[in-house]
Design a protein that fits this description.
mainly alpha; 65% helix; two-stranded antiparallel ribbon
Length: 407
């Protein structure tokens, strides 16, 4: 009697399983490795920025955490973990639902997209929460008559958490709303719809913070040192993200110039980032058998200008690349078909014919999917250590976790 053998899973299903497993294990290790303010001042420290020194950009969520921890006497570390994990889970779930038949699960779960925060050690950052707010705002604008009050509230909340939200969210919102209301034949100024949002963004630029505010924020948590169970919190000087609130333009410019002239042995770091950008964009354009290459190209090109602004504002280029690509994916999944119907865009899409012809010529959409397993990048500081072939597992998270245990 012949027994039928089950069909072997294809490569994509195997990759989805492997990536899911690494996300669960790596996410746990990455979370547990970010547990102190002193040693994790750029991850944990970013969430601790509050209004105890007066109004300051990025302080809304930190003030809420400060008040909550004061009332119920819970460590801010646990609150930060909860928000980060919940944001990651909700963003991942909603993105997969939204991208069905549009973006492959293997690509979404790969080290290039949702595995990147774990490998790059920015799972415990505000980026995921902000991208979740961005996706909700896109879904809100899908309505024929979007609730502009709620949209402004979402934007203001996002900007008061981190002003970078405005850089990549507002241009596409303005673009979509302008065409939506033009279609409704309303003679109005789109700028006025988002006026509260723009005003708050200006406030964030004005109240950027100074050294005295950084010290006040640091002292506010130092006075609550009993809330930090994993460290002896007695360092008197602000660290990491809190200290960076007092940096001026000259300091940022100096960091940018250092980044542009950075060499790691024979590796010129800016070239590594440019290569990373091109490769990751190619994966997205070639995903799902190269479907909708032209509209994907238009969206990535549109989002590239905010991405460039972010690159000039800091050195966490891996995080900015992640935001650029994922924000482009979210726009494509929610508004791809609608954008293709706009006549001005239809006329411009012909400019991307050469990209489609090039991709079809080299058949990048038929690339071996195993490439997704070996393509990874750091959130900052490119070096030979971050060769993609070494990053099929979140080695950085594992090393950091065990280092935090045995130090």
């Amino acid at each position: 009697m012949l027994v039928s053998r089950p069909k072997p899973k294809n490569v994509e299903e195997c990759l989805v399983f492997i990536f899911s497993l690494v996300i669960i294990i790596g996410g746990l290790l990455n979370t547990l490795s970010n547990k102190t303010y002193l040693n994790d001042s750029w991850t944990i420290g970013e969430w601790l920025i509050n209004y105890q020194g007066g109004f300051i950009r990025r302080g809304l969520l930190g003030e809420g955490i400060y008040i909550l921890c004061n009332v119920i006497k819970i460590s801010p570390i646990f609150v930060i973990w909860l928000i980060s994990i919940a944001s990651y889970y909700l963003l991942l779930k909603l993105t997969i639902l939204e991208s069905r038949n549009k973006v492959s699960s293997a690509f979404l779960l790969s080290p290039g997209i949702f595995l990147a925060p774990i490998i790059g050690d920015f799972l415990i950052r505000k980026d995921l929460l902000l991208l979740l707010i961005f996706l909700i705002s896109l879904k809100l604008m899908k309505f024929k008559r979007p609730n502009l009050i709620f949209l402004n509230i979402l934007n203001i909340t996002g900007m008061l958490i981190h002003e970078s939200f405005a850089i990549y969210a507002l241009p596409i919102q303005f673009f979509i709303l302008k065409r939506k209301y033009d279609c409704l034949k309303k003679n109005s100024y789109t700028f006025l719809y988002l006026l509260p949002t723009f005003c708050i963004f200006i406030f964030c630029l004005i109240f950027k913070g100074d050294q005295n505010q950084a010290i006040s924020i640091h002292q506010s948590w130092l006075n609550k040192s009993f809330l930090f169970p994993f460290e002896t919190f007695n360092y008197e000087i602000p660290l990491g993200a809190i200290d960076a609130m007092s940096w001026d333009f000259i300091k940022v410019l100096k960091i940018l110039l250092e980044a542009l002239t950075d060499f790691k042995g024979i590796l010129w770091v800016p070239l590594a980032w440019i290569t990373t950008t091109i490769l990751l964009a190619s994966f997205f354009l070639g995903d799902n058998s190269g479907k909708d290459i032209k509209i994907k190209s238009f969206i990535m090109y549109f989002q590239f200008f905010p991405f460039a602004i972010l690159c000039f504002s800091g050195w966490d280029y891996g995080r900015w690349i992640f935001i650029w690509v994922l924000s482009s994916i979210l726009i494509y999944c929610t508004f791809g078909e609608e954008l293709k119907s706009y006549k001005p865009i239809q006329q411009n899409l012909s400019r991307y014919d050469f990209i489609e012809e090039y991709f079809l010529k080299i058949e990048i959409h038929k690339r071996p999917k195993i490439l997704l397993a070996i393509f990874a990048y750091p959130h900052c500081c490119w070096s030979l250590f971050y060769l993609p072939s070494l990053l099929i597992v979140p080695g950085y998270s594992v090393l950091k976790f065990f280092k935090s245990i045995f130090k």
